[in-house]
Queue: 4 jobs
Job 1
Amino acid sequence: MADPKKVFIFDDNTDILDLCTIILEDAGYEIKTSSTSNHIIDQVNAYTPDIIFMDNWLPDVGGIDATRALKSDEKLKSIPVIYFSANNDVMALADQAGADGYLSKPFDIHELEDIIIKHLPVI
């Protein structure tokens, strides 16, 4: 059996992190979370996820700048970044950040799983 897909979630809301971890671990994914996008390149290089969820409102380095940093890194730019936010303009923010997709909060379990399936190649 293939190794579980790795998901990295950046969000400063611990309830969201806990909820996503429970849902995605149940679905067979390996999860890492961070409440800050500081040193984003180092954090992502250390884990090498298959997909990243990025909140908009993060302390210090916001989601847009963090996503842009990932997308301008030669080694990391191919990792899909899904922007997720309760902001009404999440689609515009995702576009501005250069994200590969977006998910509006609040979301349901199926939306979360569907967007991962959509952006991860099936092996």
Job 2
Amino acid sequence: MREAPTALVSLDALGASGVTVVNETPHGALAVGLSGGEPFAVSNRCRHLGGPLGKGHVADDGCLECPWHSARYDIVTGKMKRGPQGAFKPVAGVVKSTLGKRDLKTYPVEVRDGQIWLKG
């Protein structure tokens, strides 16, 4: 039996970051937002150190960027596109090649009536 669609967040609530955390879903906490006008929903925890992705932002390249160390994820595939930066920059490639093998889980969503909905 399919689950009924679930309203996740109003587009107006996304703000400049383009993403937010939605805690109450059938899948637990999700990072939900818009990238290039397309809605997305992915698991909320960065594969590096568990940073809250829904508190990050959608970068210019359309990827979801972690607020802790700036690792970036493709919101369609869930794959890490760039490893952590800053103090971690020398090991970003190693992190991407090891931890980056664990993709974010992605969820089917759609925009309807000014909100992002999780499809049933």
Job 3
Amino acid sequence: MGMTQSGNIETFNDLIRAHRDRIAEYQNATLRLRPQEAGLASTFTEIIRESEQCIADLTSRMISEGDVPENRTSFEGKIFQLWMDLKVKFSANPNSSLLDICEKGEDAMLKCYREALKHPGTFAPDDIHLLNSQQEIVTKTHDIIKAKRDQYHELVKNNQII
């Protein structure tokens, strides 16, 4: 058994699942882009790459501790449940633009990291470092998506796009 405590394994698995789900979200979002939103495709591709990198880093950290990351999606994890609840709440709103939904997804992702880092005492320093650096990356992405969403609403308000 590695140094990673069972709660930490659960947290890492939850984050891996949330990132997998985020990848699926952005793949779906890419398919739903309208011609006037084509510029978002590269942003979405970047976010997919970012999540793939986060998964790779979380996975190799677990393996180095002698743990095996789960390869399944389940709804048991507390943090993953939080992500799903938040995500579902917003995608159900027909008045939301694609960017509104993406932005809420980014909010949910950030909440997962905040939740994960609430009890840093249980993590090894390397784990804390990894989670903090991933949280920074996710925060930057959240802010980019939020800015694009605001920009989009501004254009709609000025009747520049319908």
Job 4
Amino acid sequence: MSTSTPYITAQSLEERFGQGFLLAVTDPTNTGEIDQPKVSRALADAADLIDSYIGKRYVLPVPTVPPSLGRVAADLVRYFLMTDAPGEEVTARYKDGVQWLKNVSTGLVSLGLPEAKAPASATGKVIVDGSRRLFTRRTMRGY
């Protein structure tokens, strides 16, 4: 399971897509109960996918979840929940979400959050810190 910020909760998912949707995709035997472990797995899978993209640019976990990121998370979770032929619209929204995440990771799209600072080695400078040289031309004179 993911230890990152929950980009969307099960309650938000139900508000967005409805209880009927969640029952349809998690209750194949019509017990009338939403399979919470299946929902939790899909939420974690979506969070892991999101983290793999935005972690290149932003410090994780993000301090706040922008609405656009919540929307993409919902589309990813819906796709992960629909194990049997997700349909054209769901697949298209999943692909659009992944493309959007790629754009976030490259900096084409911003989340409006503070970006992670690049390590010193990524700036192209070589920084050496250490003690003074022991063996120089001056100290080796006469040998």
